[in-house]
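pinned: reference chain
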Amino acid sequence: MADKKNKEIEYGADQIQILEGLEAVRKRPGMYIGSTSARGLHHLVYEIVDNAVDEALAGFCTEIEVTINPDNSITVIDNGRGIPVGINHKAGIPAVEVVFTILHAGGKFGGGGYKVSGGLHGVGASVVNALSDWLSVEIRREGKLYEQRYERGHTCYPLKEIGTCGEDESGTKVTFKPDATIFEEVIYDYDTLKTRLRETAFLTKGLKITLIDTREGMEQEITFHYEGGIKEFVEYLNRSKEALYPTIMYFEGKKNNVLVEVSMQHNDSYNESVYSFVNNINTPEGGTHLVGFRNALTKTFNDYARTNKLLKDSDQNLTGEDIREGLTAIISVKIEDPQFEGQTKQKLGNSEARGAVDSIVSEQLTYFLEQNPDIAHTILDKSILAQRAREAARKARDLTRRKTALEGTSLPGKLADCSEKDPSKCEIYIVEGDSAGGSAKTARSRATQAILPLRGKILNVEKARLDRIYDNAEIKAMITAFGTGIHEDFDITKLRYDKIIIMTDADVDGAHIATLMLTFIYRFMPELIKQGHVYLAKPPLYKLEKNRQIWYAYSDEELDKILSEVGRDTNNKIQRYKGLGEMDPDQLWETTMDPERRILLRVNMNEEEESEVDLTFNTLMGDKVEPRREFIERNAKFVKNLDI
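pinned: its C-alpha cells
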C-alpha cells in the first residue's frame, strides 16, 4: 500500500498551478496546434496566412507573399488594411499588441471586423508568437510604418513608428522563428507549404499567393493565382483522369446568410473525390454543407431520370453513391458564425448551411441538366452501370457472409495466424510471394506475428468497380484477414491486428506491389492509415561479411559508412539482396521482423492534404500516361536504390 505521507508526491493547494497569458501555450502547445512535430511547425505558417486570407475574404487584400528565410524563419506579407495600431481601451495597449500577446482576442468575434473568417477562436497570431523564439511585425497604415518585436511571447518594447509609406499603401508583414526548444525540428518543407497555399488560392478567387524559398541550394519560387477559383480546383484535381464531359459545372448563390459555391465534374474513374470547406477551412469529416450537397445531387438526378424515362417505374432509385461514382467536387461555403464540432474544425454543424447548399444546388443543377441533356445522359448512364455493379458486389458480399456463417471461420486458408487473441499485441505481415512467405512463417514469432503471402500483383483498384474487387482472391484474403470489412461495411473496432506491415522486395516490382496494396487500403479502408495501423517493412539491401562478422546495410550510404569503418579489402564479402526470398529465416528475423531491431516506416496521411494524396494515387495508378511521366520526372531526384 502506498505511503500517504510520502513527501515526494505532495498534492495540496500550492500544487494547483495558474498559467497566465501565453504560458499555457508554451506549456501545452499540442492543445493549440495539434503537435510539436512537422505538422505543428507548418501550422504556425497557416495561422498567419489565414489572417491575411481573412483580409482577402473581406475584400481588402489581393496579394500574399510567404518566404522561407535562410535560417528557417518565415515572413508573411499581405497588402490588406494593416492590423490596427490604435490603443485598445479595454486592454490599454495598441490593438496589434493585443492580437499578438493575448489569447482569444481578434476582430472575429462580432462588431464588424470580419463578416466571415476561418480563425474563429482568436488564438492564431498569439499562439504563433508564444511558440516562436522571436517574432516581429511591421504595419503600413495611414501613411505610416510601425514596428514591434516579441521574444517567446513577451513584448520587447512598445509599438513604435519607424518611418512613412504612401497614403495608398497598407498591409502587414510578420516574421517569426519557431522555438527550437519546443519543436522536434525547425526545418520547413517547401512542398508541404506549396500544397496548402495552392489550395488556399483555389478557394479564394482572384487572390495571388507567392511562395519563395531563399535557403541556400533550395532557391525556388511559385505563384498561385486562380481567377476561376474552385472551377480551376476541379480541373486541377481531374487532370490525371479522363473527364466524361468537357464542362465543369459551377453553382453559386446566397441563402440564409450563407454564401455557397459548388463546382463539379465526373470522370471515368470509380472513386468519389468530394472535398468540403467552410471559410476556406477544410472539413474532412464533412458536416451539414456536405449533407445538403449530397441530398440535392441524389434527388435532382433521380427526378431527372424519372421525368426523362431513363429509370422505369419498377427500377430502384439511384443511390447517392451511384451518382457520385467518378465525381470530383468542391463545396465551399462562407458563413458568418460557423459552428464546428470541436477545436479541430473538422465538421460543420450549422443547420442553415444544409438548407442553403441543398436549395442552391437543386435549383441550378436542375436548370443545367435541362439545358445540357447530353451531359445528363452521360452521367446517368455511368450511374446506372454503377448501380448494377453495386448490386453484384452486394450479392458477392452476402455470399461471403453466408459462407462464413456455415463454415464458422472467415480466415483465408493461406493465412498463418498468430496465437495471441488481443489485437493490440498482434501484427500481420503481408508478404509478396510464396517463397518469402515460407521464410517469414519460419522466422516469425508465432505468438504475435501473422503471415499472409500474396501471389503476384493484386488488382489495381483505381481501375476497378466494387464488384471486381470483391471477386479478386488476393484482395478477399486481405479483407477477411484484417476483419474490418471495407467501404460502407468498414468497422475499425473489428481490426484483428494493431500493425498491418507490407513486406515486399526492395526493387521496382516490390515497390509497385506495395503501391497497389496502399492504393487498395487508401481507397477502401482509409481509417487504417489515418489511425496509424499501416506500415512498410524495410529489409536490408546489403549483407557484408568479414572475418566471420556480419553487418547489414539499408542503403548505399550506410554500406559506404560500414566499409569506411571496417576497411575496403578483398576479405569483404558483399551480397546485394534482390529479394526477400534470398534471405534464410534467421536473416529475415534478424533484419526485418524482430521488433527489437527491425525498421518500420509508418504510412501517414495528413487530412489537410487529402486532395493532394488523392491526386497522387490517381496519377500513379490511373490510365493517363502524361501526368505520370511528369510526376516521375519531377520526383526522380528523390529516388534511392533503384534497380536498373
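why pinned: The first strand starts at residue 63 and ends at 68. The domain at 230-389 is CATH 3.30.230.10 (Ribosomal Protein S5; domain 2).
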